[in-house]
Input
Amino acid sequence: MLNKKSIGAALVCALALGASGAALATPINVDGVHWDSSSPFDLTIQSLNLRESSVSAVGDVLTGYGQIGSINGDNDFCSGCDLTFTFSYTVSSITGNQVVFNDGSFQFYVQGANTYNQADPTSVNGTPWVTLTGHTAPRTGFVDPNGQLYATVNGTISDPTLGSGGFGLADATGGPAMPWLNSNSVTDGIGGWADFSLSSSFQEQPASTCSSVTSDPNDICHYPIEGNGSLTGNTMLPVPVPEPTELGLLGLGLGAVGFFFWRRRKEFEGQA
Output
Protein backbone atom coordinates (compact mmCIF):
# COMPACT_ATOMS: atom_id res chain seq x y z
CA MET A 1 0.00 0.00 0.00
CA LEU A 2 1.25 3.48 -0.84
CA ASN A 3 1.95 5.68 2.14
CA LYS A 4 2.77 9.38 2.41
CA LYS A 5 6.46 8.64 2.81
CA SER A 6 6.60 6.63 -0.43
CA ILE A 7 4.67 9.24 -2.41
CA GLY A 8 6.87 12.03 -1.04
CA ALA A 9 10.06 10.19 -1.97
CA ALA A 10 8.83 9.61 -5.51
CA LEU A 11 7.89 13.26 -6.00
CA VAL A 12 11.24 14.41 -4.66
CA CYS A 13 13.00 12.18 -7.21
CA ALA A 14 10.91 13.64 -10.02
CA LEU A 15 11.57 17.23 -9.01
CA ALA A 16 15.28 16.55 -8.56
CA LEU A 17 15.52 15.18 -12.08
CA GLY A 18 13.66 18.19 -13.46
CA ALA A 19 15.73 20.69 -11.50
CA SER A 20 19.06 19.14 -12.45
CA GLY A 21 18.91 20.79 -15.86
CA ALA A 22 18.10 24.21 -14.36
CA ALA A 23 21.18 23.92 -12.13
CA LEU A 24 23.38 24.17 -15.22
CA ALA A 25 22.97 27.95 -15.31
CA THR A 26 25.12 30.15 -17.58
CA PRO A 27 26.58 33.54 -16.59
CA ILE A 28 24.49 36.60 -17.41
CA ASN A 29 25.62 38.19 -20.68
CA VAL A 30 24.13 41.37 -22.12
CA ASP A 31 25.77 42.53 -25.36
CA GLY A 32 29.12 41.08 -24.31
CA VAL A 33 29.03 42.40 -20.73
CA HIS A 34 28.89 39.40 -18.42
CA TRP A 35 28.83 38.79 -14.68
CA ASP A 36 28.00 36.13 -12.10
CA SER A 37 24.87 36.97 -10.11
CA SER A 38 25.83 34.36 -7.49
CA SER A 39 28.93 36.38 -6.57
CA PRO A 40 29.05 37.50 -2.92
CA PHE A 41 29.65 41.01 -4.29
CA ASP A 42 26.57 41.07 -6.52
CA LEU A 43 25.85 43.61 -7.78
CA THR A 44 28.84 45.99 -7.58
CA ILE A 45 29.83 48.08 -10.61
CA GLN A 46 32.98 50.14 -10.14
CA SER A 47 34.31 52.90 -12.38
CA LEU A 48 37.76 54.22 -13.15
CA ASN A 49 39.24 56.99 -15.29
CA LEU A 50 36.33 59.27 -14.41
CA ARG A 51 36.42 62.94 -15.40
CA GLU A 52 33.88 65.62 -14.55
CA SER A 53 33.25 69.31 -14.99
CA SER A 54 33.42 71.96 -12.28
CA VAL A 55 30.35 73.65 -10.76
CA SER A 56 30.05 76.68 -8.50
CA ALA A 57 26.45 77.93 -8.45
CA VAL A 58 22.83 76.79 -8.41
CA GLY A 59 21.75 75.93 -11.93
CA ASP A 60 25.20 74.80 -13.06
CA VAL A 61 25.20 71.46 -14.88
CA LEU A 62 27.67 68.81 -13.77
CA THR A 63 28.71 66.57 -16.65
CA GLY A 64 31.25 63.80 -16.88
CA TYR A 65 32.35 60.53 -18.40
CA GLY A 66 34.34 57.44 -17.55
CA GLN A 67 34.88 53.73 -17.90
CA ILE A 68 33.72 50.75 -15.86
CA GLY A 69 36.67 48.88 -14.38
CA SER A 70 35.01 45.89 -12.75
CA ILE A 71 31.71 44.15 -12.07
CA ASN A 72 31.46 42.08 -8.88
CA GLY A 73 35.21 42.42 -8.46
CA ASP A 74 35.98 40.92 -11.88
CA ASN A 75 37.86 43.17 -14.31
CA ASP A 76 37.46 40.70 -17.19
CA PHE A 77 33.74 41.29 -17.63
CA CYS A 78 33.52 42.64 -21.18
CA SER A 79 34.29 40.28 -24.07
CA GLY A 80 36.20 42.30 -26.66
CA CYS A 81 34.64 45.55 -25.49
CA ASP A 82 34.79 48.56 -23.18
CA LEU A 83 31.86 49.59 -21.00
CA THR A 84 31.78 53.39 -20.75
CA PHE A 85 29.37 56.03 -19.52
CA THR A 86 28.41 59.69 -19.47
CA PHE A 87 26.41 61.46 -16.77
CA SER A 88 24.71 64.74 -16.02
CA TYR A 89 23.28 66.44 -12.89
CA THR A 90 22.06 69.98 -12.18
CA VAL A 91 22.95 71.86 -8.98
CA SER A 92 19.75 72.58 -7.06
CA SER A 93 21.19 74.00 -3.82
CA ILE A 94 24.45 74.89 -2.09
CA THR A 95 24.69 75.20 1.70
CA GLY A 96 28.20 75.68 3.03
CA ASN A 97 30.18 72.69 1.78
CA GLN A 98 27.02 70.76 0.87
CA VAL A 99 25.94 70.56 -2.76
CA VAL A 100 22.64 68.95 -3.78
CA PHE A 101 21.94 67.87 -7.37
CA ASN A 102 18.83 66.85 -9.30
CA ASP A 103 17.88 65.91 -12.88
CA GLY A 104 20.43 63.11 -12.82
CA SER A 105 21.01 60.68 -15.65
CA PHE A 106 23.62 58.16 -16.77
CA GLN A 107 24.04 56.56 -20.16
CA PHE A 108 26.20 53.44 -20.43
CA TYR A 109 27.67 52.25 -23.74
CA VAL A 110 29.30 49.08 -25.04
CA GLN A 111 32.11 49.92 -27.47
CA GLY A 112 35.17 48.30 -29.01
CA ALA A 113 37.94 47.14 -26.71
CA ASN A 114 40.56 49.78 -25.95
CA THR A 115 38.63 52.50 -27.81
CA TYR A 116 38.03 54.57 -24.67
CA ASN A 117 40.56 57.35 -24.14
CA GLN A 118 40.36 59.27 -20.87
CA ALA A 119 41.98 62.30 -22.53
CA ASP A 120 39.32 62.42 -25.25
CA PRO A 121 35.71 63.02 -24.10
CA THR A 122 34.44 62.18 -27.59
CA SER A 123 35.85 58.64 -27.31
CA VAL A 124 32.75 57.63 -25.33
CA ASN A 125 30.43 56.27 -28.01
CA GLY A 126 28.94 52.93 -28.84
CA THR A 127 25.78 50.91 -28.42
CA PRO A 128 23.55 52.06 -25.51
CA TRP A 129 23.62 49.43 -22.75
CA VAL A 130 21.57 50.87 -19.89
CA THR A 131 20.12 54.23 -18.87
CA LEU A 132 20.02 55.24 -15.20
CA THR A 133 17.90 58.07 -13.82
CA GLY A 134 18.42 59.83 -10.50
CA HIS A 135 16.12 58.78 -7.66
CA THR A 136 14.99 61.51 -5.25
CA ALA A 137 15.44 60.67 -1.55
CA PRO A 138 16.64 62.53 1.56
CA ARG A 139 20.18 62.25 2.89
CA THR A 140 20.91 62.37 6.61
CA GLY A 141 22.86 65.48 7.65
CA PHE A 142 21.96 67.60 4.63
CA VAL A 143 19.99 70.81 5.05
CA ASP A 144 18.24 70.31 1.71
CA PRO A 145 16.55 66.87 1.76
CA ASN A 146 15.20 66.95 -1.79
CA GLY A 147 18.00 65.66 -3.96
CA GLN A 148 19.16 62.81 -6.15
CA LEU A 149 22.88 63.32 -5.51
CA TYR A 150 24.47 64.79 -2.39
CA ALA A 151 28.09 65.97 -2.28
CA THR A 152 30.26 67.05 0.62
CA VAL A 153 33.14 69.15 -0.65
CA ASN A 154 36.55 69.80 0.87
CA GLY A 155 38.21 72.97 -0.37
CA THR A 156 35.85 75.10 -2.45
CA ILE A 157 32.84 74.05 -4.50
CA SER A 158 34.60 74.81 -7.79
CA ASP A 159 37.99 73.47 -6.67
CA PRO A 160 37.36 70.41 -4.49
CA THR A 161 40.28 68.78 -2.74
CA LEU A 162 41.05 65.25 -1.58
CA GLY A 163 38.30 63.77 0.58
CA SER A 164 35.36 65.19 -1.34
CA GLY A 165 32.63 62.68 -2.00
CA GLY A 166 29.08 62.11 -3.11
CA PHE A 167 26.14 59.78 -2.52
CA GLY A 168 22.88 59.18 -4.31
CA LEU A 169 20.33 56.71 -5.63
CA ALA A 170 19.49 55.75 -9.21
CA ASP A 171 17.03 53.63 -11.17
CA ALA A 172 17.49 51.60 -14.35
CA THR A 173 15.03 53.09 -16.83
CA GLY A 174 16.05 51.90 -20.30
CA GLY A 175 18.42 49.89 -22.49
CA PRO A 176 18.93 46.16 -23.09
CA ALA A 177 20.47 45.61 -19.62
CA MET A 178 17.53 47.19 -17.76
CA PRO A 179 15.62 43.91 -17.11
CA TRP A 180 18.65 42.55 -15.25
CA LEU A 181 19.28 45.75 -13.25
CA ASN A 182 15.75 46.89 -12.39
CA SER A 183 15.77 45.15 -8.99
CA ASN A 184 14.16 47.76 -6.69
CA SER A 185 16.41 46.40 -3.94
CA VAL A 186 17.72 49.61 -2.30
CA THR A 187 15.42 51.34 0.18
CA ASP A 188 15.19 55.11 -0.21
CA GLY A 189 14.18 55.69 3.41
CA ILE A 190 10.78 57.15 2.57
CA GLY A 191 8.87 54.02 1.66
CA GLY A 192 10.21 53.56 -1.85
CA TRP A 193 12.92 51.55 -3.56
CA ALA A 194 15.75 52.34 -5.95
CA ASP A 195 17.86 50.02 -8.08
CA PHE A 196 21.28 51.36 -7.11
CA SER A 197 23.09 53.34 -4.47
CA LEU A 198 25.86 55.52 -5.85
CA SER A 199 29.00 56.62 -4.05
CA SER A 200 31.92 58.62 -5.40
CA SER A 201 35.10 60.40 -4.43
CA PHE A 202 36.62 63.27 -6.40
CA GLN A 203 39.16 66.07 -6.36
CA GLU A 204 40.49 68.76 -8.65
CA GLN A 205 43.26 67.41 -10.87
CA PRO A 206 43.18 68.86 -14.39
CA ALA A 207 45.14 67.28 -17.22
CA SER A 208 48.74 68.51 -17.35
CA THR A 209 48.08 69.98 -20.80
CA CYS A 210 45.38 72.35 -19.46
CA SER A 211 46.19 75.84 -18.25
CA SER A 212 42.54 76.79 -17.69
CA VAL A 213 39.02 75.38 -17.76
CA THR A 214 37.34 75.59 -21.16
CA SER A 215 33.64 75.72 -22.05
CA ASP A 216 33.97 73.11 -24.82
CA PRO A 217 32.52 69.75 -23.63
CA ASN A 218 34.59 67.96 -26.29
CA ASP A 219 37.84 69.25 -24.73
CA ILE A 220 39.58 67.46 -21.85
CA CYS A 221 40.17 70.90 -20.26
CA HIS A 222 36.42 71.18 -19.65
CA TYR A 223 36.80 68.41 -17.03
CA PRO A 224 39.27 69.48 -14.31
CA ILE A 225 37.91 67.02 -11.72
CA GLU A 226 39.04 63.40 -11.51
CA GLY A 227 37.59 60.62 -9.40
CA ASN A 228 36.01 57.22 -9.13
CA GLY A 229 32.68 55.78 -8.13
CA SER A 230 30.65 52.65 -7.55
CA LEU A 231 27.09 51.49 -8.05
CA THR A 232 25.72 48.81 -5.73
CA GLY A 233 22.45 46.92 -6.04
CA ASN A 234 21.28 43.43 -6.94
CA THR A 235 20.87 41.51 -10.16
CA MET A 236 17.23 41.03 -11.10
CA LEU A 237 16.85 37.42 -12.25
CA PRO A 238 13.89 36.95 -14.62
CA VAL A 239 11.64 33.94 -14.04
CA PRO A 240 13.46 31.17 -15.95
CA VAL A 241 11.77 29.49 -18.90
CA PRO A 242 12.62 25.75 -18.88
CA GLU A 243 14.83 24.62 -21.73
CA PRO A 244 13.73 21.58 -23.78
CA THR A 245 16.31 19.43 -22.01
CA GLU A 246 14.97 20.54 -18.63
CA LEU A 247 11.43 19.71 -19.69
CA GLY A 248 12.68 16.31 -20.85
CA LEU A 249 14.28 15.62 -17.48
CA LEU A 250 11.12 16.67 -15.67
CA GLY A 251 9.09 14.37 -17.95
CA LEU A 252 11.50 11.54 -17.17
CA GLY A 253 11.05 12.18 -13.47
CA LEU A 254 7.27 12.21 -13.73
CA GLY A 255 7.45 9.01 -15.78
CA ALA A 256 9.42 7.44 -12.95
CA VAL A 257 6.68 8.44 -10.54
CA GLY A 258 4.05 6.82 -12.81
CA PHE A 259 6.06 3.63 -13.05
CA PHE A 260 6.47 3.61 -9.27
CA PHE A 261 2.71 3.87 -8.75
CA TRP A 262 2.01 1.17 -11.40
CA ARG A 263 4.45 -1.24 -9.80
CA ARG A 264 3.09 -0.71 -6.32
CA ARG A 265 -0.47 -1.26 -7.59
CA LYS A 266 0.55 -4.55 -9.24
CA GLU A 267 2.23 -5.68 -6.06
CA PHE A 268 -0.87 -4.83 -4.08
CA GLU A 269 -3.14 -6.70 -6.53
CA GLY A 270 -0.86 -9.76 -6.34
CA GLN A 271 -1.16 -9.81 -2.58
CA ALA A 272 -4.95 -9.50 -2.69
Notes: The chain has one domain: 28-232. The two ends are 11 Å apart (CA to CA). Residues 4-25 have pLDDT under 50 and may be disordered.
